[in-house]
Design goal:
By secondary structure, the protein is mainly α. The protein contains two helices and two strands; from the N terminus they run ααββ. The mean pLDDT is 91.
Length: 106
């Protein structure tokens, strides 16, 4: 019984750390979108061109979303659940499609 409880506690801690990482990445994404907004406002106000900088930030945002998907997959492996890439719903690991939105599960 003790081994099962210790294993479950370890899983919970691992999942919480992964969720904390996801939250941190989401905050970083929000800051990047904020930065794009400031650049756009400056473009409108002062006619400056930030196209290259904005495109670079967009690429960084896309990479951050890939990191989130990877972390969500890790959570699914730890909890023996499949996380839907479209809506984020948890599904049994043997499911082929999301029970919430119907998207195929990878």
């Amino acid at each position: 019984g003790f081994d099962v409880a210790a294993k479950k506690t370890g899983e919970v801690i691992t999942v919480q750390k992964l969720k904390l990482n996801i939250t941190s990445i989401k905050n970083d994404i929000s800051k990047k979108y904020e930065s794009i907004g400031r650049m756009h406002a400056d473009t409108v106000k002062n006619n400056n061109d930030y196209t290259d900088a904005i495109n670079s930030i967009i690429e960084e945002i896309d990479e951050k979303y890939q990191e989130i998907k990877s972390l969500e997959k890790e959570i699914g492996e730890v909890t023996n659940k499949s996380i839907c890439g479209s809506c984020g719903a948890k599904n049994p690991s043997n499911s082929g499609f999301c029970s919430k939105c119907g998207s195929p599960l990878n």
